Amino acid sequence: MEELLAIFCDVDDFCNAYEEYCKTYLLVDKEQIIPKTSMSLSEIMTIVIYFHLSNYRTFKWYYLKFVCITLKPYFPKLVSYNRFVEIMKMSIVPLTLYLMKYRVGKCTGISFIDSTTLDVCDQHRIYSHKVFKDLAKRGKSSTGWFYGFKLHLIINDMGEILSVCLTSGNVDDRDWNVISRLTKQIYGKLFADRGYLSQKLFEKLFDENITLITKIKKNMKTS
Fold first, then answer.
1. pTM reported for the whole predicted model
2. 110-119 vs 188-191, strand pairing mode
3. What is the helix (H) or strand (E) element at residue 115, kind and residue range?
4. Is there a contact between 210 and 107 (Cβ–Cβ < 8 Å)?
5. Residue 144 — left, alpha, or beta (φ > 0 → left; ψ -120 to 50 → alpha)?
6. In the chain, helix, strand, coil percent, each to 5?
7. How far is CA 126 from CA 54, 133, 136, 146, 169, in A?
8. Which residues, including other chains, have CB under 8 Å from residue 3's CB and lie 6 or more apart?
9. Given phi > 0 = left and psi -120 to 50 = alpha, else beta, which region is 40?
10. How far is the first Cα of the chain from the last one, in angstroms, to the nearest whole number?
11. Where are the beta strands (DSSP E) in 120-209?
12. Which of 114, 120, 112, 110 is closest to 173 using CA atoms?
């Protein structure tokens, strides 16, 4: 469990600084930002992060079958699964800050951009869906229509995340507002699939010292 302990120590250092910042500078009550529970924020974040390093496909089974059994000695004040789901959502802000501050790689001049869909419900349940009613949108990907969000990512040639952006499902991969935000710290060659093929986008990125490289569509003629 050396990896788990290393993650916790790193996250705990961040959380101490984060909580002190919230206490000193934020106008809202600290309890509105940091969950009031027997578990610390660093414990909550560590469990969430470690899930992505496990072999479990669902968080529920991960928590019930692994965290509550195998990891119980490391988290003596574990709460029930239902309670953890309630407080887990409050870790999204510090988790995002932790990712962007300490867990992004460095651009090497060779980068890759892509997006993936985050479906929030089945197509037949769109009109009855309430959780993300005002945020999720219907969009189309290479696999068909979906309802939800898009996660846009840029990684370097070592697989390290360089930048990330979450949008509604109807946002085009070539949207300049998204691309410009993602490529602020990027330079050199940027590889993408055919979904990013655009002369206008190529020219804008070229002006930013970035060469966009994509495959051409089957019906396109080469000179």
1. 0.74
2. parallel
3. strand 110-119
4. no
5. left
6. 45, 20, 35
7. 31, 9, 10, 10, 13
8. 53
9. beta
10. 57
11. 137-141, 144-156, 161-168, 188-191
12. 114
Q: How far apart are CA 198 and CA 13, in angstroms?
A: 44
| Strands 210-213 and 144-156, bridge-based pairing | unpaired
Which pair of structure tokens corresponds to residue 162?
């360089």
Return the CA Rg of the chain. 21
| The two three-digit tokens of residue 69, written as one number | 């059994």
Digit-by-digit pLDDT tens for the chain (223 residues) are: 789 999 999 999 999 998 888 888 876 665 556 667 889 999 999 999 999 999 899 999 999 999 999 999 999 999 999 999 988 988 888 998 998 888 889 999 999 999 999 999 888 888 888 888 888 999 988 888 999 999 999 999 999 999 999 999 999 999 999 999 999 999 999 999 999 999 999 999 999 999 999 987 666 555 5
Q: Is residue 111 within 8 Å of 191, Cβ to Cβ?
A: yes
180 DSSP assignment? H
Query: Is the Cβ–Cβ distance between 96 and 128 less than 8 Å?
Result: no
Sorted by sequence, the CB contacts under 8 Å of residue 5 that are 6+ apart come out as 74
**d(Cα 121, Cα 19) in Å, to the nearest integer?**
35
Residue with tokens 């009613």: 133
